[in-house]
Structure formats: C-alpha cells, structure tokens
Amino acid sequence: MTTRARSFLSALALSLLAALPARAPGQVRPAGLVPEGLASQDREMLTLALEVSKRSGEIMEKWIAAKEVSEERLFSFFYYPVPRTEPPKFTTDWDRLADRDIQPVEDAALSRSSALAFVVMVDKFGYLPSHNTNSSQPLTGNAAVDLVNNRTKRIFNDRVGLLAARSTAPFLLQRYQRDTGENLVDLSVPVYVRGKHWGAVRVAYRPADR
Predict the structure, then answer these.
(1) What is the DSSP letter of 134?
(2) CB within 8 A of 112, min separation 6: which ones?
(3) How many domains would you assign to the chain?
(4) Tens-place pLDDT, residues 108-133
(5) What pTM was estimated for this model as a whole?
(6) Residue 75, C-beta contacts closer than 8 angstroms, at least 6 positions apart
(7) Which of 55, 65, 99, 178 is least surrounded, with the fewest CB atoms within 10 Å of its CB?
(8) In the chain, where do the E strands start and end?
(9) Which domain holds residue 69?
(10) Cα angle at 8 between 10 and 48, to 5 degrees?
C-alpha cells in the first residue's frame, strides 16, 4: 500500500558501520556509545534516538508481560483501515497503548532540540501508531492542514520510510524532502522486542550549517 500524498524524496542512505563490531541480533547499542566521525549534531541525535529506541522496546515488553497485548499480536502487523481518511490511516490491536505510553516518550525527546521535526516509533512496515502530539491534532477535513497537523496512524512506506523501518544496522542516516516540503535529515535506529527486530525509531531534524 503506497502513501498517496505527493512526495519528493531524494534519499541518500549512509550506513556508517564498517568499524563497528558484530553484535547479536537482539542487542541494542547502549545510549551514549556513538561512533567517531559523525558531526556533533548527528552525534546528539543518535544518542537521543538510541535512548528512545531502548525505552520503546522496554515499554512494549511490559505490555506483553502485563498481558495488555500478546507478542503474537504485536508482531502480526495487521492494520484496520480508518474509513474516509486520505492519506489512509489505520488502527491496530495495540495502537492505543502507543498513544498512552509511547507518545509521551516521543514528545519528551522532541522537546530537547528546536532543530527536531519529529521523533517517532514505526514498525518494520513503516506503520506509525502514535505521532508526536503536535502532529496528532484532530482532523479538520482540510487536506493541506491535516497533512501537517495529523500524521499519526499512517503507513510511511516510501523509500526513506521503509529503509528506516527495516534496517537492522545500528543506525542509518538519510537526507530527504518530506511530503510537507521540508528538507530534513532522518536518523533511525532499530527497535527490538524480546530480542526480535520490530521496527525503528526515526528522528528527523533540520541540518545545522556544516
């Protein structure tokens, strides 16, 4: 299913991982351990993304332990279409848990830098269950307004979105033009749940002058 909103994406995926040691698939790189050679802004954003990824994985594991959702359901990647939404929106068996527990983590991270455009968690198919609060405003019926202010519960399966969602590299840097017209850097890190790759945290920011 493709995102129907018009987009102009020019992606350059940079995997800066050659010098990193091999790791078991379920391990998450600890927050604060960032490779040399990154610009200071990218290092800051990587540290933030790693923190949010670790916290997101822990939250989802608590859902399973508390029987709020089963591991099978969380990994089923089954989406229920929301009628009369364009671009299409979807709910799941657990997205309300993300609204309750993941969005506050995302919002807290977003508040840490004015350069940030968004901090979100997506599954490995690009589904975004709970966007930042400022991008989860009530639908107005005005397509131009809603494209900016209500971006939650969409599947971002464009090239940049899927590369971010599916990558199991410790991190991935991409530059692209968002469907709102903004030119951004997208830094993503994987999210693991009980040792299995579930998706990613995406941190998008306006690049500082180099």
Answers:
(1) G
(2) 48
(3) 1
(4) 999 999 999 999 999 999 999 999 99
(5) 0.81
(6) 193, 196, 198
(7) 65
(8) 80-82, 89-91, 116-123, 172-177, 183-193, 196-205
(9) 40-205
(10) 60
